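Section 5: illustrative case.
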């Protein structure tokens, strides 16, 4: 995948297939704005820059994906995708299903967890990018999570644990809200007797679970059918290529048929994959909702036994009140529950030999960048959350080695080459010698990737740019 051209309103920026520098002599001219406009044009919902509301811009970005060129035109939330021959559809970037369809067109992937995390392995934001190792914000509300990424990349099923973590985080949020109400004395008394309404609610939960199961089976069937179509298309094309089928063309004479000269073969496969990505996202959501309903049903089944206890509890609350310290202990308990689930997820991933592959690649890249001494021994380092011991240049280089290792493994497994985008990679702690080391590392390990760097430095002697975009005034002036 390569970015060919970006148009923002009436300004056009052309990118080279390989080494690109977005440069200005001073800060505040619009380098980071231009980088974020790339992401915005691709359908990501990124924060606007001060003084410039992205929602008021019209952007157009041209991408080379495999052997085709796609154009994405975005106005506010609306994105139109075309391939120069025909329109492939209109999408709403803030609609969840549409968002996954857009990303699937770009990356050719169908797993929602991979699509959620893909930006975190190739994009380094000036504000958050150089402090993000394996969990946290990539930019704005877009997050990266190492457990989710690895499980999706290697096909390790952690969905049940991830749903449990998601639900417990929701419960934790509710508890924190309740604590605020208690602290402001907004507790409302309740009647804990079992009503006809609650009995009816039990029946409704059962019906909802049955309905969810029907939809789950239907969507699963649709996904399997679409996967079969993709596989059948690939098998059919392989058969045609193996028998060296020839056709006579009026202009080119006799030609051998292959997938490169079958009209729109890859495009049609991409459209099917985009649909699978949407269905996978819907399936994940349905399973999450079903798990929630099952837990509610179990709670309802305990209702009769609990009713008396709840009444007793309310009686106690009315006499002594629930204190903020009690709520704090409840919050601690819920946070511990989340931590336990996260530990279970990591234990499940540790059982896979793939984690050692990830660790060894991180270690190899750290050696190239001269920071192998900063890497803990053993594959548990992949899941570390201890960054406080690092400082300055060491942290910068460890993060770069870590995330570039993930990108390398991702590319080896998928065959997809992502643009590497570095926004303001030079900091006060990073010497020009280290920058030269980083650029040489990228050129050695990622020779086929497009590189886009935004900086006030030109890095003369460290790298020779194929294209330099010079910003001398504010981006849209």
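Designed sequence:
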């Amino acid at each position: 995948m390569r970015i060919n051209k970006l148009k923002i309103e009436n300004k056009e920026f052309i990118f080279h297939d390989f080494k690109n520098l977005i440069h200005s002599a001073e800060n505040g001219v619009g380098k980071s704005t231009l980088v974020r406009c790339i992401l915005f044009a691709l359908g990501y919902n990124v924060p606007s820059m001060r003084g410039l509301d992205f929602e008021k811009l019209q952007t157009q970005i041209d991408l080379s994906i495999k052997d085709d060129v796609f154009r994405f035109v975005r106005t506010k939330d609306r994105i139109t995708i075309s391939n120069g021959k025909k329109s492939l559809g209109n999408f709403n970037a803030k609609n969840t299903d549409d968002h996954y369809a857009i990303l699937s067109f770009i990356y050719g992937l169908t797993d929602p967890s991979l699509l959620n995390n893909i930006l975190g392995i190739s994009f380094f934001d000036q504000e958050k990018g150089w402090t993000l190792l394996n969990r946290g914000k990539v930019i704005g509300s877009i997050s990266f999570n190492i457990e989710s990424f690895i499980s999706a990349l290697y096909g390790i099923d952690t969905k049940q644990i991830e749903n449990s973590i998601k639900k417990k985080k929701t419960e934790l949020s509710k508890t924190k809200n309740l604590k605020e109400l208690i602290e402001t004395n907004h507790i409302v008394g309740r009647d804990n007797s079992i009503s006809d309404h609650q009995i009816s609610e039990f029946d409704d939960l059962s019906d909802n679970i049955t309905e969810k199961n029907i939809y789950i089976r239907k969507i699963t069937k649709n996904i399997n059918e679409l996967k079969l179509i993709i596989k059948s298309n690939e098998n059919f094309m392989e058969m045609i290529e193996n028998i060296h089928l020839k056709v006579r063309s009026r202009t080119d004479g006799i030609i051998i048929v292959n997938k490169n000269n079958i009209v729109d073969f890859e495009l049609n496969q991409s459209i099917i994959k985009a649909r699978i990505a949407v269905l996978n996202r819907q399936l994940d959501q349905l399973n999450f909702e079903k798990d929630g309903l099952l837990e509610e049903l179990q709670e309802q089944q305990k209702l009769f036994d609990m009713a008396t206890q709840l009444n007793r509890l309310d009686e106690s609350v009315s006499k002594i009140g629930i204190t903020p310290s009690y709520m704090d202990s409840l919050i601690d308990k819920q946070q511990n529950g989340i931590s336990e689930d996260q530990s279970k997820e990591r234990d499940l991933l540790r059982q896979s030999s793939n984690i050692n592959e990830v660790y060894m690649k991180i270690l190899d890249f750290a050696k190239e960048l001269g920071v192998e001494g900063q890497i803990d021994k053993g594959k548990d380092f992949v899941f570390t959350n201890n960054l406080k011991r690092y400082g300055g240049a060491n942290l910068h280089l460890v993060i770069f080695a870590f995330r570039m290792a993930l990108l390398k493994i991702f590319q080896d497994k998928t065959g997809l080459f992502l643009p590497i985008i570095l926004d303001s990679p030079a900091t006060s702690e990073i010497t020009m010698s280290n920058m030269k080391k980083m650029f040489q590392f990228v050129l050695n390990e990622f020779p086929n990737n497009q590189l886009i760097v935004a900086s006030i430095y030109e890095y003369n002697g460290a790298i020779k740019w194929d294209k330099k975009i010079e910003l001398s005034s504010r981006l849209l002036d």
